Amino acid sequence: MVVPTNNRLKYGYVTPKIEDIDGLQAALDGKQDTGAPVSTGVTDHAALTGLGDDDHTQYLTNGRGDARYSLSGHVHDYEQAGLMASHEAASNPHPQYMTQVESDAAYSGLDHTHPISDVVGLQTALDDKQAAGSYAGASHSHTIANVTGLQAALDSKQATLVSGDNIKTINGVSVLGSGDIPIAGGGGSTATYSANLAFTDPTSVKIFDLNIAGVTAGQKLFISEDYEALGDEFEFDTLSLAGFVTSADNVRIIANSNGLISGTRPITILAA
């Protein structure tokens, strides 16, 4: 069956080939060739009956075509009603999606930063850290120049005593060290006494009147600090000592220092 011309134009119909229609070739092969005599039947198309019947439902009629396809040149309802224009003009036609403004308000940018207070526990952790800076190692040393005032303090101290160099000897015998220095001569007896000089106020020169039982008038006194009892302190503040017997059992001692002396200083007195 050939589709009417008006339907071809309407639906863009293209005449199919014989092989495009299932069973058509077999059906044609069973037909009589054109021009063969027909003994009976209708020979005029107009004489056929049922021409208006819809016997071939595999083809489109106007009704089926109109129900299945839109007409050429058709428009859509949303265009006719101006819906597309209003949709495009709407500020937020798709509320299920976030706009950039909404996203900026809800989220931080990729390059955002935080103050310390926004990070839980960060300030406490920082408070436990050592402040930035350059520090010396746990094991280190300093030169004298690195210690404020140390050189001046050392300059005010007496150098280490060296017998015969910065402290005199007695008859060539060093007064440094422990024990007594035997002194011969005079034919008289000698005696050694110990005493303490109490410096109640810082001073460099002081006179002491001491009671030393056993000394007699006319004896000579050899007085020195008791370095063994004094310990290491003698290296810093030493005394120059001199004395004489004022009367039996009484002596006067003059103490002189290169610096201010305070506290108690032990001495040894040799009477001869």
Describe the structure in your own words.
With 272 residues, the chain is α+β, with helices and mostly antiparallel strands. Among the domains are: 1-32 and 46-75, no CATH class; 187-271. The chain is 20% helix and 22% strand. It is built from 9 helices and 6 strands. Strands 3, 4, 5 and 6 form a 4-stranded antiparallel beta sheet that branches. Strands 1-2 form a two-stranded antiparallel sheet. The protein starts with a helix and ends with a strand. The relative contact order is 0.09. The mean pLDDT is 81.
Main attributes of the structure:
272 residues, alpha+beta, four-stranded antiparallel beta sheet
Brief synopsis:
The chain is built from nine helices and six strands; from the N terminus they run ααααααααββββαββ. The chain has 272 residues and is α+β, with helices and mostly antiparallel strands.
Average pLDDT = 81
Shape: rod-shaped
**What is the terminal separation in angstroms?**
166 Å
Tally of helical runs: 9
Percent helix among the residues?
Answer: 10-25%
Profile the largest sheet. Answer: 4 strands, antiparallel
Structural class by secondary-structure content: alpha+beta
Q: Which quaternary structure do these chains form?
A: single chain
According to DSSP, the number of beta strands is 6
Any low-confidence stretches, pLDDT <50, length ≥5? none
Order of helices and strands: HHHHHHHHEEEEHEE
Strand residues, percent? 15-25%
Which value, in Å, is the CA radius of gyration? 67 Å
